[in-house]
Amino acid sequence: MSQSIPEIQLNDGLTIPALGFGTYRLNGNRGASAIQSAIDSGYRLIDTAYNYENEATVGEGIRRSSVPRSELRITSKLPGRYHEYDKAVTAIQESLFRAQLDYYDLYFIHWPNPKEDLYVEAWQALIDAQKWGLIRSIGVCNFLPEHLDRLEKETGIKPSMNQVELHPFFNQEEQRAYHQEKQIQTQSWSPLARVQNILDNEVIQSVADHYDKTVSQVILRWHYQLGSVAIPKSSSSHRQKENLSIFDFSLTEEDMNRIHQLTQPDGRMNDQDPAEYQEF
Ligand SMILES: NC(=O)c1ccc[n+]([C@@H]2O[C@H](COP(=O)([O-])OP(=O)(O)OC[C@H]3O[C@@H](n4cnc5c(N)ncnc54)[C@H](OP(=O)(O)O)[C@@H]3O)[C@@H](O)[C@H]2O)c1
């Protein structure tokens, strides 16, 4: 049984659900069915990106679902190759055309690409697109504190959210503390670490046994209690519902800490350090 998802208010006033749905690798007809199923199961926050090549699939899933557009929060992201101002504006328009939407609730810069050093220009395009009504709330992904500081210093406007790699093997303690100080909402990508070496983790399994929950549910509850919005992806309607059912139990501080102990300094899945990694 799923429960209703609590809401969170962002620093610009937009409210979003505290748990969302990831769509990376959900494409085409099967992807649209999976997205429809997620929405009909109770997800209201749906994450896509220009580079996933599935904004059209997400739009189709929304239209097939039984939920009005106004009740949904849809996020997309600007690719690195379009950070120049004019290209960024065109990409945002293109994102909307692909999804057949009039607006995105949230739009993010996908990666800072610091070697190119155009992310402040891209941010200005997001600020303007928000003024024009194309986007309700503007955020970033994979921004380190130094990148966030520059946005605020050079434009006076800080992001509402920062979506970062976050899972039990990489708990982002310092980054989360920085977000809290700046009132920027943390969002967790790959919240289940893409289920690589995690579903059979003995520590999490023993916590899950104690609460009569699954390993995935315990991990997603851990994100929720950290104050981070997890966006697990699943192609299966059964696992989508399983992942929603995390609001009827609470992890003790001791169990939260047992999961924190799994974090490693090099715990990123693919060594994608935003100071170095570039995505176009
Ligand atoms: N901003 C960024 O740079 C960035 C980077 C990566 C991802 N993202 C976003 O974050 C979303 C989530 O991350 P992700 O897709 O990389 O990984 P994830 O959500 O951590 O894991 C997805 C994998 O877990 C499996 N799974 C889901 N629920 C399960 C359950 N209850 N039991 C067993 N297996 C389960 C899925 O398989 P099935 O589909 O077969 O259920 C899939 O293989 C993405 O979809 C994307 O929207 C953003």
Please identify, by name, the CATH architecture of the domain at 7-193 and 228-234: Alpha-Beta Barrel
Low-confidence stretches: none
- Tell me the span between the first and last alpha carbons: 40 Å
The profile of the biggest β sheet is: 8 strands, parallel
Please name the CATH topology of the domain at 7-193 and 228-234.
Answer: TIM Barrel
Class inferred from helices and paired strands: alpha/beta
Annotation field: number of helices? 10
Report on this model:
One of its GO terms (molecular function) is oxidoreductase activity, acting on the CH-OH group of donors, NAD or NADP as acceptor. The active site is at residue 52. By secondary structure, the chain is an alpha/beta fold. The chain has a domain at 7-193 and 228-234: Alpha-Beta Barrel (TIM Barrel), CATH 3.20.20. Helix content is 40%, strand content 15%. The protein contains 10 helices and 10 strands. The chain has helices at 28-41, 55-64, 85-99, 119-131, 145-155, 173-182, 202-211, 215-226, 237-244, 253-260; strands spanning 7-9, 15-17, 21-22, 45-47, 73-78, 104-109, 135-141, 161-165, 185-189, 229-230. The strands form 2 sheets. The chain has an 8-stranded parallel β-sheet. Strands 1-2 form a two-stranded antiparallel ribbon. Helix 4 (119-131) links the parallel strand 6 and strand 7 (135-141). Helix 1 packs across helix 2 (55-64).
Key terms:
280 residues, two-stranded antiparallel ribbon, eight-stranded parallel β-sheet, alpha/beta, 40% helix, 2,5-diketo-D-gluconic acid reductase, 15% strand, binds NADP nicotinamide-adenine-dinucleotide phosphate, TIM Barrel
